[in-house]
Each structure stands twice: as C-alpha cells, then as structure tokens.
Amino acid sequence: MTLQLMKDGQLMKDGHSMKDGHSMKDGWVGVIKGRPQPGAFAERSRRTQPQDIDAFADMTGDRNPLHYDKALAEASVFGKLIVQGGVTSGILNAVVAEDLPGPGSVFLEVSWKFVKAVGVGELITGRVEVKEVRADKPITRLETSVRNEAGELCLTGTATVFTVPLARR
After folding, report:
1. Buried b / exposed e across 125-145, counting CB within 10 Å, b at 16+?
2. Is the Cα torsion angle 58, 62, 64, 66 positive or negative in sign?
3. pLDDT tens per residue across span 134-144
4. Structural domains in the chain?
C-alpha cells in the first residue's frame, strides 16, 4: 500500500483518492499534464489578421459585412473592421488544448460574454484560470477571458472542460 499527500491536501492510496475514509478512483491517471491545481493559470497572445476572417468564414459561412466591408464597418458603432466572435474566443481553445489543462482537453460547457469587439490587427491575450478540479474525473472549471493590448476586456466567462487521458500507460 502506498499513501501520498497531494498538493491540494488530498490523500491518495494506491492511486485512489481517499475522501471521508473511502477510496475514490483518481480520474487524472494518464492525463499528459496531470491534475491542474486551483489558482493555476495560462495565457496565449496573438495578433488578429485578415486571413483569420477568411479562414473562419470558409469554415462557418459567416460573411457578415462588419468583417469584410471596410466603409460599412467604419461607419458602424464599431468604427473599424472586426473579427468574428469565434476568432476572438478561438484563442481560448488553444490555451485549453495546449497549455491548461492541456492535450486531450475538450469543452463540455462555456458561458461567454463578448463585451468589446476585436478589430483586425489587434493583439489579443486569452487567459484561463483553474477554479475547481474534480478528483474522480478529469473535469476542470475555468474562469476565462480575452483582453486586447490596451488591457480592455473583450470576452469574459467560464468554461468546463474534460481532459481525455492520452498518456501511454
């Protein structure tokens, strides 16, 4: 029998979590980056480009004139060409799938508010922060945000992700 005290204060017995004196399976076995800890965060930044609009439109059919017609977009409330919301939120897909929780992660649920449009050529930074982690299943609740280079909030919300164990056993 092997007992191990985890960083989050949980007691593990032979790879199983001990809760209220009962053994509970560790749902994070085989997850490439392991179990994330509450408070952990990751960020990624990239500059939006006209090609992002074209690629997203090719994928989805979203050809809203606010993304293509410069004169119309400049005369609108936005005052500029803007990228599709999926381009803005897409950076969070990369943070979740590559950084935290990492490879094998897929969204189960998202709740996002788009609070400021992102223009073409703007530098955006996506951030996720771990709020809750289940021990019995590789499920994480994240606080999510996307900010522009001025630090203004463009997207805010939460996401719940499932991380498929991909590590070779």
Report:
1. bbbbbbeebebeebbbbbebb
2. negative
3. 999 999 999 99
4. 3-163 (3.10.129.10)
**Cβ(142)–Cβ(92) under 8 Å?**
no
Q: 49: helix, coil or strand?
A: coil
Question: By the 8 A CB rule, do 144 and 157 touch?
Answer: yes
Reported as a single tens digit per residue, the pLDDT across 61-77 is 999 999 999 999 999 99
- What's the pLDDT tens digit per position in 17-51? 555 555 668 888 998 999 999 999 999 999 999 99
Q: What are the start-end ranges of the E strands in the chain?
A: 3-5, 11-13, 16-19, 22-25, 41-47, 105-114, 123-133, 139-148, 153-163
Cα 145 from Cα 91, distance rounded (Å): 10
